[in-house]
Specification:
By secondary structure, the protein is an alpha+beta fold. The protein has helices at residues 30-34, 44-51, 99-106, 138-147, 159-169, 172-176, and strands at residues 2-6, 12-15, 25-28, 63-71, 75-87, 111-115, 118-122, 124-128, 154-157, 177-179. Strand 6 (111-115) and strand 7 form a beta hairpin. The longest helix has 11 residues, at 159-169.
């Protein structure tokens, strides 16, 4: 058996795409974010049914925590938000952007993020790695997700389970986990 501490902050692996279909964004608690299996959702209505309209993020609302973002291609994604999100209306913002952002802008789905209530202050939106959608043994992903809901995220795994997640995660293993024994 190995005991691993999970570095929750390191699960924010990259900047998230700055798009959301119809500004469909739901605020999540840490426990909800860490145990979220995004592949279970096939529609925004299912997200609303699970988390409730009272947890919707509103445009311009300052928020520091986890959110579930509904993307244009019909997929949910857990992100970490530091600041507030708005629909971007300035066409200059996508002048040099990739096609996906130009297309999102046309549909009113391209977002800008800021912090502190001032446009010149930068906020951030990060993609968060969640273990419930990992393609290794369901038991392992549930153990890790459950550990992530604790104040101190620690999980005990067998040597075989550790070997399986090391193979799956590759270089991310050392980023996400600290071996305690």
């Amino acid at each position: 058996m190995e005991t691993l501490r999970i570095n929750r902050k390191q699960l924010e692996i990259r900047r998230a795409q700055m798009t959301a279909e119809k500004f469909q964004i739901m605020k999540l608690t840490t426990a909800q974010a860490m145990t979220c299996k995004t592949s279970e959702f096939s529609s925004w209505e299912e997200v609303l049914a699970r988390y409730g309209k009272e947890n919707l993020l509103h445009e311009g609302e300052e928020y520091y925590g986890y959110v579930l973002v509904w993307r244009r291609w019909g997929k949910a994604e857990v992100n970490a938000l530091y600041g507030s999100l708005r629909v971007e209306h300035d066409p200059v913002s996508v002048y040099w952007a990739d096609t996906v952002y130009k297309e999102a802008f046309k549909h009113g789905e391209f977002l800008s993020v800021s912090a502190g209530g001032e446009e010149q202050c930068f906020g951030a939106l990060f993609y968060v790695w969640t273990f419930r959608d990992c393609r290794f043994d369901e038991r392992i992903s549930k153990k890790i997700a459950d550990a992530l809901t604790a104040e101190v995220p620690v999980v005990s795994l067998s040597d075989d389970e550790v070997r399986e997640i090391k193979e799956y995660l590759g270089g991310y293993y050392r980023r996400f986990f600290i071996e305690l024994d």
